[in-house]
Design goal:
It is a single chain. The protein is α+β, with helices and mostly antiparallel strands. It has a single domain (47-208), classed as NADH Oxidase (3-Layer(aba) Sandwich), CATH 3.40.109. 38% of the residues lie in helices and 15% in strands. It is built from 8 helices and 6 strands, in the order H-H-E-H-H-H-E-E-E-H-E-H-E-H. It has helices at residues 21-36, 53-61, 81-102, 105-111, 122-125, 151-169, 182-187, 219-222, and strands at 73-78, 128-135, 138-139, 145-146, 172-176, 194-203. The strands form 2 sheets. A 4-stranded antiparallel beta sheet has the order 1-2-6-5. Strands 3-4 form a two-stranded antiparallel ribbon. Helix 2 packs antiparallel against helix 6 (151-169). The radius of gyration is 20 Å and the shape is globular. The relative contact order is 0.20.
């Protein structure tokens, strides 16, 4: 085996916990049941999130696999009221254009059962917004552009883990994707090498919160076992 260097990094023993089959099934069923209760929420309370919760959830997100382990993501947590207000104003401007003519009729028809529109008060009410960015390329110490691989796939995996971690911690979320989202880069001071991926709205659901009466596809419709 060659000595460790930049092309052959050192390896360390895998940290792994194996469970007996019955424990595996119990854990898998419990997690599936917990995640089955996850719903997208549009009515948030303004209660603050306990210290340390978002940090732990972001560490979980950062454990996601990524192309060449380059971890091409960055998470910006916004709790400042003025910054949230400006994000809402910019997002609603894009949403008015979307609902007012840019969106195809078929898309609007698909959205109709959800009752969404161009008004996004949750962007101000919720205690935290997490803007997720993907690195289109990295920047070396000399400013040189560094290639990134499978950026969307990597950032999507990290975002999925983040949503699961937030739900597991007891918080509600909303995935908000105004299009285009370039205003997020400007308002949050991110560089041109980063592209907004999604804006997560995070907090406690309002006491009067409701969700659409919709279901999820059964296992047989989403999985094939060969």
């Amino acid at each position: 085996m060659p000595p460790p260097d930049s092309n052959h990094p050192a390896h360390v023993p895998l940290s792994w916990v194996e469970h007996p089959p019955e424990v595996m099934r119990t854990r898998a069923e419990a997690f599936a049941s917990e995640m089955g209760r996850r719903r997208t929420v549009r009515q948030f309370a303004d209660r603050p999130i306990p210290p340390g919760v978002l940090e732990a959830c972001l560490r979980a997100a950062g454990s996601a696999p990524s192309g060449a382990n380059l971890q091409p993501w960055h998470f910006v947590v916004v709790t400042d009221a003025d910054r949230k207000r400006r994000i809402r104003a910019a997002a609603e401007e894009e949403e008015r254009s979307f609902y007012g003519g840019r969106a195809p009729a078929e898309w609007l028809e698909a959205l109709a059962p959800l009752g969404t529109d161009d008004q996004k008060p949750f962007l101000e009410t919720a205690p935290a917004l997490i803007a997720v960015f993907g690195e289109r390329y990295g920047l070396g110490p000399d400013g040189r552009k560094l290639k990134r691989y499978y950026v969307d796939e990597s950032v999507g995996l990290a975002t999925g883990l983040l949503i699961a971690a937030l739900h597991h911690a007891g918080l509600a979320t909303l995935t908000h994707t105004p299009s285009p989202m370039g205003f997020l880069r400007d308002l949050l001071g991110r560089g041109e090498h980063e592209r907004p991926f999604v804006l997560l709205v995070v907090g406690y659901p309002a006491p009067e919160a409701t969700v659409p009466a919709i279901g999820r596809k059964p296992l047989r419709a989403i999985a094939t076992f060969l």
